[in-house]
C-alpha cells in the first residue's frame, strides 16, 4: 500500500503553487483529480518548453494526476462536483480569494456535502485582510515578503530568487497543512480549512534574519555569498570560474593555509580566529584568490576535497542534472507520455523506505479531460439516482 | 485536541535544517523531546542575536520543544534512549551519515526497540552514495544543487540565495515525509525510514528550469528580476528605490500605458503583444523608468494599485515586519522566555482552522536540560524495573 493510497484529492489548482503541492500528494499515491477548464485546461499546458507539442512545464507538475474537463460557470458541472465532494477527502484551490465562492464551491458550501472535508487554499496574501485581493505573482510575493532585500550583492539592487520560491514554498507549506489535517481527521473525524499565503511562506524562509530585526533592531541587507559571522565561507574566483569554500573553525583554517602553502596566514593576527577572519574577510579573500588564480575550479576542488576542506564547484543546471549524484538519487525520472515520447522530469526528494521503486512512484501526466467520461458516468448516474429517490 | 497532540518526537537535530522541521511539528502540538549535548546544548545556543544572554536564533527554532541533556558517548544515555524509543513515534536526526550508527542509534538498531518507528534523517547529500560524506553547509548544498547558477543578474557571479534555503527546504520536505509516514503508519501499522538530502531539495526548487534543460537542452542562466517570457514583469527604478510591476496580458498593458499617459506605447509595434514586449523588454524598461523617475516608489505604487495594475514595493525586513499585513496574519508572535524577557519570533504560516489561537499555538523555548530530570525519573525507573524483571 502506497503511503497516501486511497486518499482522494479534488484539485482545482492551476499554474505552479497549487499543482506543486498536489503533485507531491500524487507521488505518494493519492488519487488527485485535477479539474481543468473546458477546452483550454491548466494555463501551463500552453507554457514551454514543448516536446512534440506537449508542455514539459505541465507534465512535471501534473504527472500522476487525473484530468477532468469542466466548465465551472455551468450549473451542471457544479452539481457534479458537489456529488463528487461527498467521496473526496481534500479539496485544494489557488484561485484569488472569493472566486471559489462565486462558483458556489467555497468551504462552507462544500462542507454541507461532506462534514469532515479538508479544504486547502493558497493565495498571495491570505483569504482575508488588507491585501487579500492583491494578485499573487511570484515576483509580487517575493518583493513584499522581504527576501529580495537580502538576496544579492551589496552593490546590486534587490534581487528576486531565481526560481519561483513564492509558489514552491507555498506549495510545500500547504502540503504540510494537508497532511497534518489528514492525520488530525484520522484521529478525530474532523475536517478543517487551511489558509496559506505566499507572502507568509516567503517571510518564514527569512529564518534568523527576522530575529536579527526583532531582537537587535537590525535590518539585514544583501551580503552576496559570504557568511555574516564566519570566514572563509564564501565563493572564490579560480582560473575559470567560482568555487564555494566553507571553513568555520580554526583547525580547518590551519589545514587550508597549509594546503595553500601559506602557513604565514595562521600566524597573521588578522586571521587568528573565526571572528577575526570574518572581520577581515576582504583581505582574506584576496589571499585565497591569489592562490586560486593558479588553478581551475575543478583542480582546486580536487585538491581541497582530498584534504577534507569543505568546498564545492558551483554547478549550472546542465552540470548538476548530468551528475552521477542526481542519477544515484533518482532525482530525474522518465515518464512515458505516449505519442509525445518520454519526458525526463524531477524525482521526489523525499526518499521513503516504503516506496523504493526507482521511479519514485512517478507516472505520466494526463491528457486534457482524459478522465472526464469515467467520472461523468459514475457521478451523473448517482445524480440521476439521487434525483429519482427524492 | 491539537492536530499532532500525542505524537512523540525524539529529536537529535542541531542548528537549522532539522530544528526547522521539528519546530513545525511542535507548533502543531507534537511533543518534541530535543536531545542536547551535555553542558553545551545545540550549537545555536551560542549564535546571536542575544537578548539578555539568550539566543534569539535558538528560541525561534526551538520554541515549544522539551530539552533533555545527554552525552551520546555515554553508555547509560544510550540505554536510556533505547527505553525512551519504545514510547516515541518519530526519531529525527541531521548528523553526518554514519554518526548515529557510531552512537548505536541507527534505524536498524532502534527498530529492534520499536518495530513501527519512523526514522527521519536530513543530510547534505543523502545517507549513501558518491557524496554522502560531504559536509552539509548551506552554501555547499546551494552551490551543487544548481540554484546559484540562476540566482542574480546577467553580470553578477553565481549568487547564494540570501537565506539558508538548503536548510529550510530540507526541513520542509522532511516534515512532509514525517507526516506522510505518520499517516501511513496510522493505516498500516508500519514504520519506515526517511532520507532527505539538502542538495536534492535545492534541485527540486529549480522547478521548470529543469524542464528547459531536459526538454530543450537549454541551460538557464541568471536573468535578474525579469520574467523569461513576459513583460513588463520586473523591478523598475523610481525616484527613491525599486518597484515590482507584473503585467502579463495586453489589457493590463494598455491600462498601464494610459496611466503613464503613454497611449503611444499601445500602438508601438515593439510592444504589441506579451511576446514582443518580452523580446523588447530593455526598451520597454527605459520607457517605464522614464515615467517612474517622477515619482517615489510609494507614490507610484499608490497610483498603480488604484488602477488595478499588479505592483509591489520591495520591502526590507524592518518594513515587512512592521506592516499591518504581518500583524493581521499573526506572522510575528510573542513568547515569554521568563528571566530573558519576551521574544518576538515568526508565527506559523500554515493557518489551520482547528488551531485558531492568536499565538499560533507557539510557546516558549526550553532552558538547556529543563526536562532531563522528568525524563530520567521516568525511564531510569523503567530500566531498573526492566532489569529486575529479566
Automatic annotation (TrEMBL), chains A, B:
GO terms for molecular function: CoA-transferase activity. This is CoA-transferase family III. The keyword Transferase applies. Pfam families: CoA_transf_3 (PF02515). Keywords: Transferase. InterPro entries: CoA-transferase_III_domain, CoA-Trfase_fam_III, CoA-Trfase_III_dom3_sf, CoA-Trfase_III_dom_1_sf.
Amino acid at each position: 500500500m502506497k503511503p497516501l493510497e486511497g486518499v482522494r484529492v479534488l484539485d482545482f489548482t492551476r499554474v505552479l503553487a497549487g499543482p506543486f503541492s498536489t503533485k507531491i500528494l500524487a507521488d505518494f499515491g493519492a488519487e488527485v483529480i485535477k479539474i481543468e477548464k473546458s477546452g483550454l485546461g491548466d494555463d501551463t499546458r500552453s507554457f514551454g518548453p514543448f516536446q512534440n507539442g506537449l508542455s514539459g512545464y505541465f507534465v512535471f507538475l501534473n504527472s500522476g494526476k487525473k484530468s477532468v474537463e469542466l466548465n465551472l460557470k455551468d450549473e451542471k458541472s457544479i452539481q457534479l462536483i458537489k456529488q463528487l465532494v461527498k467521496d473526496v477527502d481534500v479539496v485544494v484551490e489557488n484561485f484569488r480569494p472569493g472566486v471559489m465562492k462565486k462558483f458556489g464551491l467555497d468551504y462552507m458550501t462544500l462542507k454541507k456535502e461532506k462534514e469532515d472535508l479538508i479544504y486547502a487554499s493558497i493565495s498571495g496574501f491570505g483569504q482575508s485582510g488588507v491585501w487579500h485581493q492583491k494578485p499573487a505573482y511570484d515576483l509580487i510575493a517575493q518583493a513584499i515578503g522581504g527576501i529580495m532585500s537580502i538576496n544579492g550583492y551589496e552593490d546590486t539592487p534587490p534581487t528576486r530568487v531565481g526560481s519561483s520560491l513564492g509558489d514552491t514554498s507555498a506549495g510545500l507549506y500547504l502540503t504540510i497543512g494537508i497532511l497534518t489535517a489528514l492525520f488530525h481527521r484520522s484521529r478525530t473525524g474532523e475536517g478543517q480549512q487551511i489558509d496559506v499565503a505566499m507572502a507568509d511562506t516567503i517571510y518564514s524562509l527569512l529564518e534568523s534574519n527576522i530575529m536579527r530585526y526583532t531582537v537587535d533592531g537590525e535590518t539585514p541587507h544583501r551580503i552576496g555569498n559570504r557568511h555574516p559571522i564566519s570566514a572563509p565561507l564564501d565563493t572564490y574566483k579560480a582560473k575559470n570560474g567560482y568555487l564555494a569554500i566553507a571553513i568555520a573553525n580554526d583547525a580547518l583554517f590551519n589545514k587550508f593555509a597549509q594546503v595553500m602553502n601559506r602557513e604565514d596566514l595562521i600566524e597573521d593576527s588578522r586571521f587568528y580566529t573565526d571572528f577575526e577572519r570574518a572581520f577581515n574577510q576582504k583581505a582574506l579573500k584576496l589571499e585565497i584568490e591569489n592562490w586560486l588564480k593558479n588553478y581551475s575550479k575543478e583542480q582546486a576542488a580536487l585538491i581541497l576535497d582530498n584534504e577534507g576542506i569543505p568546498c564545492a564547484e558551483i554547478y549550472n543546471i546542465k552540470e548538476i542534472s548530468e551528475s552521477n549524484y542526481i542519477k544515484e538519487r533518482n532525482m530525474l525520472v522518465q515518464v512515458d507520455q505516449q505519442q509525445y515520447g518520454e519526458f525526463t522530469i524531477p524525482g521526489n526528494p523525499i526518499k521513503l523506505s516504503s516506496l523504493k521503486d526507482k521511479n519514485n512512484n512517478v507516472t505520466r501526466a494526463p491528457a486534457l479531460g482524459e478522465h472526464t467520461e469515467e467520472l461523468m458516468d459514475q457521478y451523473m448516474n448517482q445524480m440521476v439516482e439521487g434525483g429519482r429517490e427524492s
